[in-house]
Amino acid sequence: MRDDDIAILLRALGHPVRLNILRILATQQQGQCCCADVTESLPLAQSTVSQHIKVLLDAGLITRQPRGTRNCYIVQHDRLAELGAAYSGMLAGLTPASPKLEAEPA
After folding, report:
1. 52: which of 13, 65, 89, 95 lies 20 to 30 Å off by Cα?
2. Hey, which residues does 73 pair with through a beta bridge?
3. Residue 34 near residue 70, CB atoms below 8 Å
């Protein structure tokens, strides 16, 4: 995963409401729910929830599945796993090398 992709995903995850939306979607029995279902779980207007859902959609963290007159949303667990692997690899590359032990003077 490229640094640009990581940055896009981290920006999408950089708001507590979007993290809550992902948790709500991830805990649904069928792994999907509609915007109205998410709105019931949050103290926010549906328009606000919809804006946050759009950010998650644009980042590829969730997908939309039309169901009649509603849209249902599904977490893309593989995308989150890719981010986790890329992020941990990126962090591993930022850790300082262990210092070399020098012989103590006699």
Report:
1. 89
2. 33, 64
3. yes
Beta bridge partners of 62: 75
The secondary structure of residue 61, as a DSSP letter, is S
pLDDT tens for the chain, residues 1 to 106: 778 888 888 899 999 999 999 988 888 766 567 777 888 888 999 899 999 999 999 999 999 988 888 888 988 888 888 888 887 766 666 566 555 556 566 5
Cite the DSSP H helix spans in the chain: 3-12, 16-26, 35-41, 46-58, 77-94
* Residue 53 neighbours by CB under 8 Å, 6+ apart: 21, 35, 38, 62, 73
Overall pTM > 0.70: yes
In the chain, the amino acid numbered 86 is: A
Q: What is the DSSP letter of 15?
A: S
